[in-house]
Model the fold of this input.
Amino acid sequence: MATQAPIKYRSGRALAGTGGPTAALFLVPFFAVFALAMIAPVIYSLVLSFHSQQKSGLGFSEPKSVFVGLENYLQVFQSETFMEGMGRLALYCLIYIPAMVGGAVVFSLLLDATVARARKLFQLLVFLPHAVPGVIAALIWAYLYTPGISPLVQVLQGGGIQLNFLDAHLVLPSIVNIGVWEWTGYNVIILFTALQAVPREILEAARVDGAGEIRAALSIKFPLILPALSVIMLFTIIGTLQLFTEPSIISKATASVTSTWVPNLWAYDAAFIRHNLNQAAAASIIIAALAAVLSLIVTRISSRMNKS
Done:
């Protein structure tokens, strides 16, 4: 009877090396699209931000692109409307981030403590608002905020409460409410998934020692989901600085939200209303740099908290 030849095993390093060229070939389309869709626009924006369109002579000739250095950045920072928009964005962040992230933490902890039958229903109800596209959500809330047609306003008026959600003093909290309504459910799912990875043995030992649900949530569950919470904070800050859709939709229903209400609206107005692409590029780079700095700060703080 013929004997089977011994099988020669290759080392893991050799196997990994043989797949290198093939893996690189499959990654080429991704990097090509990434370079065209992400890197190229950033480089083009940087080039635009250091140039300006100027006309020579009596102004009848075609405008020429002239290198002006940091002049566009100085003009952006000297713009009162841009700096006012930065102030509104900072206030929006101070209200929105604690409300949304805090709500997501509370809801996820409540979901983790509920019975199995009710958990699925609660997950669906909490996540459902995120399934609505941002533009549609803003349109829905613009309808609910508009006096005269809003059933919400009519109900409040019937109870003796007179509120104009689109007033200059209330429009910022109204836009915060839209963001909280949209994104809380999405982050609840992320935190709830992290909670499912918490070892049940630790929770059972805590209950044996007499810890209730609140004590277990604060002392055991919350510290163990800090890495997931750090990721949420990182993406929330980046997304908040890109605030555009909600105020642009609400601006159609009230004069309290102008075309330069937040920095992204200011950049849009500069590019497509005032046709100053150079200042729009400078404003965009400023917003991107701010997002990078804040992301770095959040990452450093999160890494220190996770190590401690």
